[in-house]
Specification:
disordered N terminus, seven-stranded parallel beta sheet, alpha/beta, binds adenosine-5'-diphosphate, 26 helices, globular, binds magnesium ion
Length: 749
């Protein structure tokens, strides 16, 4: 690309070829420090990994399509007119100069405005922006009197000061597809383009991570050619072929890491836990008041087989809220207790841990009163351990855990503390994967003693197959896809207050009716009170000025107003733990009609008589979160009703999300809607940002074929060469990914 305004003045190397690991300054010259600062690149190889964000077809010049206010854009256009306006600058005194230029692309025009103080710079600029000349313009889009404009954009004109013919000649030199690089306010796209172009010319050896025969059988470009075609394609098909190759690399490296991890797990020994006839599991099954669904039986069998094998189980169990995961997990826990070991259930919140403790104790009946007067002979004990327990209760629980008297231990991350010692931990069940990182799993696994415990992870947020393969690729996955019979449908309705404000009153009348029929109701708010914001805000939200509904404000207002006379209670994360537990108990016992709460009730809370949920400012929640929330109603065979109350105007993304939730109860479909609206990084989760930053071209939702193929290839490579001794470049990339994930881990620890 031609350079006129700026000339990087790089140190031209003497040699005609440089290495992949050569210093960035070799090709970026004096721009190297700011490139390193902006992107962290140190070597030429790092720089070549800076892929174009898009390519502009020189033939079409249409590049204004996605220009919107406040975006930082780089556009290519031809100046159609330009005018200098001298004006008197009152603040400074004297004349200043405003230059207005109109730049045209094929389908739109954009105004550029430059302000200059000195006449000679203003005149120089007027020459630069002569009608007929073309250039790249980069800046933040603003509006002035309703017209989109760039003020003082960074400018890179094509061609020098020459005549039309010279401009045309410079224009000729531009590639057919001009790469536009992700830039910042300090590093311009064309500065990167210049350095990358030089690097492409000088670097002759590009590391190959793919084995040659894989490359051939999958019809992929060699690495060096792929890089050249990505940065400097002559056609869209070259660019496509380049992306295909480099995307495959990303999938391949990620899958190699996971294949190694699976291999390592398989190499570990674990104590087989095969139970015994007539034990707790058998007696539990005898008294189970329902038949397991076919899915539950199948998954249970797989889990019990895993437990009986000599290697640690690492299984992910996914299934909708209410699909009966807990029963499957409990059967596994009993099998382990029958084998003389303990099982721990790790819950994401205090409320949920208490809830599990209550329901599991209830399901076990006298089987859970081992060692107590009147308990079943050789039953076990269920211990609860949370961060907020009183000292005495805590000491007792710790003792039961350490002595092994408690076969089943339920808790929050308090279970991860050093002080918690198990007599013999055989199984860890993690409820709701999303809130637990890999490192917490590891911390619990480390409590296993001689051999690592088996691990079962449960999640109610269905995870699309490719995401599971990328993020949880070291886990085997099972899915419960049917709900137990007798589950009543939930009807979901969007209550749009902008369309009809009086609908709020109608909704509250409906709450009262529901209570009069003897049922209970949840009212969910995004905030607790005061100035807090619990981070539920979604991209594309509107109307930030209006405060969101808060539990501490809504509850008293309703108690004195529309819901006067009903038994109403508040529940939120800032209440003391025993207060929370008390409120939940009373709600479960039917002593509370209306529970006004935050999302603390999101997961797992199970009160069969609750049939209605009103979610205030529902647009503040994500799709999956709303789906989880409404899963709290309609659990007792009674039809459920969920009202999504919103102030969001029609035709906004927020309203679309709510409409999607109202339209289907298929969790997998909603999960897809949800993931598609998020950035890729969020899809992979916070604890995966090392993996995330290594994925530039691969989109886990879109490129299923690549992921599936790469997984097969990676598994084969690792099986033959576990330490990757014969694949040094691959080993290097794998190490990089490990290091990145390790760095994340340390940062959070
Ligand atoms: P999840 O943990 O997947 O949300 P649970 O295991 O808590 O689901 O089950 C939800 C409710 O359904 C519980 O009350 C449970 O007792 C009940 N349940 C589980 N499996 C069955 C079944 N096969 N038939 C009838 N009810 C079931
Ligand atoms: Mg559950």
């Amino acid at each position: 690309m031609a350079r006129t305004v700026e000339s990087p003045g790089r140190e031209r190397p003497l040699a005609s070829t440089i290495g992949w690991d050569a210093r960035l300054a070799t090709v970026a010259g004096r721009h190297a420090p700011k490139i390193e600062k902006a992107f962290g690149y140190r070597t030429v190889g790092d720089l070549l990994g800076h892929y174009p964000r898009r390519w502009v077809d020189k033939g079409s010049l249409s590049d204004l399509g996605d220009v919107e206010p406040d975006l930082h854009v780089t556009v290519i256009g031809r100046v159609v007119r330009s005018r200098q306006h001298p004006y008197s600058d009152r603040r400074r005194g004297g004349l200043a100069y405003r230059l207005e230029a109109v730049v045209a692309t094929e389908d739109a025009q954009l105004m550029l405005t430059f302000f200059d103080k000195a006449q000679h710079t203003a005149d120089w600029r007027l020459g630069q922006l002569r009608p007929g000349r073309s250039g790249l313009f980069s800046g933040k889009v603003g509006t002035f009197r309703g017209t989109l404009q760039l003020v003082n954009p960074q400018t890179q004109m094509f061609g020098g000061e020459g005549d039309e013919a010279a401009v045309a000649a410079e224009w000729e030199k531009l590639p057919a597809l001009i790469p536009i690089y992700p830039a910042t306010s300090t590093v311009q796209s064309w500065q990167l383009a210049d350095a990358i172009e030089l690097a492409l010319d000088l670097v002759h050896e590009v590391p190959e991570v793919l084995p040659e025969e894989v490359r051939r059988t999958h019809d992929l470009l060699p690495a060096r050619q792929a890089l050249r075609w990505l940065h400097r394609p002559d056609s869209w098909s070259e660019k496509g072929a380049a992306e295909k190759r480099l995307r495959f690399d990303e999938a391949f490296v990620t899958q190699t890491v996971l294949a190694q991890r699976r291999q390592e797990l398989r190499a570990l020994e674990a104590e087989p836990r095969s139970g015994r006839p007539g034990g707790l599991l058998d007696r539990f099954d005898e008294r189970l008041p329902f038949e397991l669904t076919a899915g539950q039986q199948q998954v249970s069998r797989a889990v019990l087989d895993d437990l009986a094998a000599g290697h640690p189980m690492h299984r992910l169990l996914q299934g909708e809220v209410g699909s009966g995961k807990t029963v499957v997990a409990l059967r596994a826990m009993l099998r382990v207790v029958d084998s003389g070991a303990q099982a721990a259930l790790l819950a994401p919140t205090e409320v949920l841990a208490q809830q599990h403790h209550r329901s599991i104790t209830a399901m076990l009946g006298d089987l859970a009163t081992g060692g107590m007067l009147g308990g079943a002979e050789d039953g076990t004990r269920v211990a609860l351990l949370t961060g907020s327990m009183g000292a005495a209760a805590r000491r007792e629980a710790l003792l039961d855990v350490a002595s092994g008297a408690a076969g089943v231990v339920i808790g929050t991350h308090a279970l991860l503390e050093d002080k918690v010692r198990f007599a013999e931990l055989g199984l860890v069940v993690v409820d709701e994967q999303h809130r637990f990182g890999v490192e917490q799993r590891a911390a619990l696994a480390a409590k296993g003693g001689r051999t690592p415990p088996h691990v079962l992870v449960m999640t109610a947020t269905p995870i699309p197959r490719t995401v599971a393969m990328t993020v949880f690729g070291d886990l085997e996955t099972s899915t419960l896809s049917e709900l137990p019979a007798g589950r009543a449908p939930i009807q979901t309705t969007v209550v749009a207050l902008v369309d009809q404000p009086s609908w709020m009153e109608r909704a509250l009348v409906r709450v009262r009716e529901e209570v009069e029929r003897g049922h209970q109701v949840y009212i969910v708010c995004p905030r607790i009170g005061g100035d807090d914001n619990d981070g539920t805000q979604q991209p594309g939200d509107v109307d930030d000025a209006k405060p969101m509904a808060a539990v501490e404000e809504v509850a008293p207002e309703l108690a004195e107003g529309a819901l006067h006379g009903l038994r109403l209670e508040m529940l939120h994360g800032r209440l003391p733990p025993d207060r929370k537990d008390q409120v939940m108990r009373r709600f479960a016992a039917g002593e509370v009609d209306v529970l006004v709460s935050t999302t603390v009730i999101e997961v797992g809370v199970d009160v069969a008589n609750a049939t209605m949920m009103v979610i205030l400012d529902a647009d503040r929640f994500g799709v999956s979160q709303l789906h989880q929330l409404r899963g709290r109603v309609g659990r007792g065979g009674l039809p459920g009703l969920c009202l999504l109350v919103t102030n969001a105007p029609a035709d906004t993304p927020a309203r679309e999300r709510l409409a999607a939730v109202a339209a289907t109860t298929d969790g997998f479909e909603l999960s897809r809607v949800d993931l598609e609206q998020r950035r890729e990084g969020d899809v992979l989760g916070v604890s995966q940002s090392g993996r995330r930053s290594s994925l530039r071209l691969l989109h886990v939702l879109q490129h299923e074929d690549d992921i599936v193929e790469a997984r097969a290839v990676a598994t084969a490579v690792v099986a033959e060469d576990p330490a990757l001794e014969r694949h040094p470049q691959l080993a290097k990339q794998v190490r990089r990914l490990h290091d990145a994930e390790q760095a994340d881990y340390l940062e959070k620890a």
